[in-house]
Design brief:
By secondary structure, the protein is of the alpha/beta class.
Length: about 140
């Protein structure tokens, strides 16, 4: 599981400052389990952005934003919303940000920071198992 944490609100707003209409994409797997990008968090982000005058054309949680084909189908189904949006705000890990970026011809802004890969024992208790440094020594 990939663990994420929200970027500071000011940083997200600054990144979105030049865009008027947004589409928010959350992730129904890792980010939902971390409580950083599921249904509740997407709804809260929508409310926060609309409270500062931004227009959110759609806010949706995709079952797994790192599944290229699933994201491709979702964005195709929501083609009108994608076209209407000036930018897409992704509430998931950096992998999902890259997947979405590769599928749309719009700016894609991350709302979360990827922290580590690990194990979820229960809500609030996580164990870091990998920092994804690219130099694994776990078997040594």
């Amino acid at each position: 599981m990939i663990f994420t944490k929200p970027k500071p609100k000011e940083e997200v707003l600054k990144s979105l400052g030049q865009y008027d209409k947004l589409m928010i994409l959350g992730c129904g797997t890792c980010s939902a389990d971390c409580h950083t990008g599921g249904e509740k968090e997407v709804a809260a982000m929508r409310k926060r952005l609309e409270s500062v005058g931004m227009i959110v054309v759609e806010g949706v949680v995709v079952d797994s934003l790192c599944n290229l084909e699933r994201v491709r189908r979702t964005l195709k189904r929501m083609e009108d919303d994608v076209k209407e949006a000036d930018a897409l705000l992704v509430m998931s890990c950096g992998i999902a940000v890259q997947v979405v970026s590769g599928l749309v011809d719009k700016p894609v802004v991350p709302a979360l920071d990827t922290v580590f890969a690990g194990v979820l024992e229960r809500i609030g208790r996580y164990y870091e198992m990998c920092s994804m440094c690219g130099e694994c020594v776990a078997g040594i």
